[in-house]
Amino acid sequence: MNLEELKKTLEALIFVSEEPLTLKQIKDILQDEDSDHIEFALKEFIFEFNGRDGGLEIRELAGGYRMSTRPELHETIRAFLKTLPSARLSLAALETLAVIAYKQPVTIPEIMEIRGTRSTSAIKTLLDRRLITAKGRKECVGRPMMYGTSKDFLIQFGLKDLTELPSIEDFEDLVG
Amino acid sequence: MSDKTISEMSEATATETAVEDNYETTNKGDYKIKLEAFEGPLDLLLYLIKKEEVNIYDIPIARITEQYLEYLTLMEELDIAVAGEFLVMAATLIHIKSRMLLPPDPNVAPESLEDPRQELVERLLEHQKYKQAASMLYSRSEVAQAVFTRAQIESDTQTPELSATVFDLLEIFKKVLERAKEQAEMEIARDEITMAEKMEEIHSLLKERDSLSIRELFEKARSKRELILTFLAVLELVKEAVIRLAQSETFGDITAFKRVAETRPDTEEISESGENLSQV
């Protein structure tokens, strides 16, 4: 495939993919294409696509690429789809999620140590909403369950991967 | 739909203002405090430190302890169950306060003397960081929620039967149970139907047509009681040799037929036994 054809194909693939499309998925499908060629085409396609400043954009999300509408259009889209934003997480759940995101894999007693309060219902909410998953048991007394964030967490918080989270030390300056 | 959580969140983002309101009202002696604004003892301590405008690295422990205990008393007066962790923190504060009062150990070099407040300060700072991280996550999710992907296409759910999780099943089961409960409640207001009537109904239905789907019969039942009555009535009719049941395949629908060759027992007997059974 020449570059233009490849870019067209990539656009179509990203469009139909329900989950963020990973580079590996693209390469698996386009086996005949040179890997570097694909990466170059992808980069160029995304640059061009986002550069035209249309109603859609390609974002890197949860280790893949996803086509979505631009955030500034949300009011009109919501009015059309007749949807409400999904229920927001409580402050307790958000704080618990923050601890898990930065400390994972982390156990409930460890979360409690940081938050200074019990977090059981917050953990339940986060599990129900599939933002966190159990990550095995810690090899210590009582073998408590460890928790970590899920792929859904990355998607729902618009993150490429966990490294995109600002460093927890950066928040220190704000104290006082 | 999400009113509650939204208001919770707006309360959370408005903690600052809510907290200031608290301060004002407490000054007036009007104890209408929103204590749920405090997520835990660390939260309450951070609030007190902010309110008193003291340096977090040099907390006047006596003053803060006093205030902290005042809040706990207030919570008790308001009949709010004080969570155990608040009491643990109170004990910690008092412990620190007493250690501060003790003269420093003369055998230890002043540089290596540890500030009794050190550990608490570290915990507070740590907690503060995660509070900041939580609000960062909050604003990230706000943006992420404002984008939409294409609508689902058919291939997304190729096997809808299999895409349900155990939790989805439980959810549906719960709904079914709730619905059944509602129907049971309606039953009280309705006229009770006896088994004899039910048997008569089935019988007259079979007079009109030759066969009758049992499932159809059950679907007509509007309460658990009626379902049971229908079931018993069918059994009774079979026993009385009024009807005959047939099933074409395993787990298939069951069809009732009228027995023509044999003589029907007289209705009086049916209604009598019907009355007896319906009382069981």
Description:
The complex is a heterodimer of chains A (176) and B (280). Chain A is an alpha+beta fold and 176 residues long. Chain A is built from eight helices and five strands; from the N terminus they run H-H-H-E-E-H-H-E-H-H-E-E-H. Chain A has a three-stranded antiparallel β-sheet. In chain A, helix 1 packs across helix 3 (35-51) and helix 5 crosses helix 7 (120-128). Chain B is mainly α and 280 residues long. Chain B folds into two domains: 7-103 and 114-140, no CATH class; 192-279, Orthogonal Bundle (Arc Repressor Mutant, subunit A). In chain B, 61% of the residues lie in helices and 5% in strands. Chain B has helices spanning 3-13, 15-27, 41-51, 61-77, 84-101, 118-144, 166-189, 195-208, 214-220, 224-239, 267-279; strands at residues 211-213, 243-247, 254-258. The longest helix of chain B has 27 residues, at 118-144. Classes of the chains: A alpha+beta (176), B mainly alpha (280). Chains A and B meet through strand 2, helix 4, helix 5 and helix 6 of A and helix 1, helix 3 and helix 6 of B.
What would the keywords be for this entry?
heterodimer, A: 176 residues, alpha+beta, Arc Repressor Mutant, subunit A, three-stranded antiparallel beta sheet, two-stranded antiparallel sheet, B: 280 residues, mainly alpha, 2 domains, 11 helices, 61% helix, elongated, disordered C terminus
Structure, briefly:
With about 180 residues, chain A is of the alpha+beta class. Chain A has helices at about 5-15, 25-30, 35-50, 75-80, 90-105, 110-115, 120-130, 150-155; strands at about 55-60, 65-70, 105, 130-135, 145-150. Chain A has two domains: about 5-80, Arc Repressor Mutant, subunit A; about 90-160, Arc Repressor Mutant, subunit A, CATH 1.10.10.
Mean pLDDT of chain A: 89
Query: What is the makeup of the main sheet of chain A?
Result: 3 strands, antiparallel
Structural class of the helices, strands and pairings of chain A?
A: alpha+beta
Number of strands of chain B: 3
Low-confidence stretches of chain B: 1-33, 262-280
Strand content of chain B: under 5%
Strand order of the largest sheet of chain A: 3-5-4
Name of the CATH architecture of the largest domain in chain A: Orthogonal Bundle
Q: What characteristic shape of chain B results from the CA principal axes?
A: elongated
What's the helix-strand series of chain A? HHHEEHHEHHEEH
The SS-based structural class of chain B is mainly alpha
Kindly report the oligomeric state of this protein: heterodimer
Task: Evaluate the radius of gyration of chain A.
Answer: 20 Å
What pattern of helices and strands is seen along the backbone of chain B? HHHHHHHHEHHEEH
What percent of the residues of chain A sit in helical stretches (DSSP H or I)? 40-55%
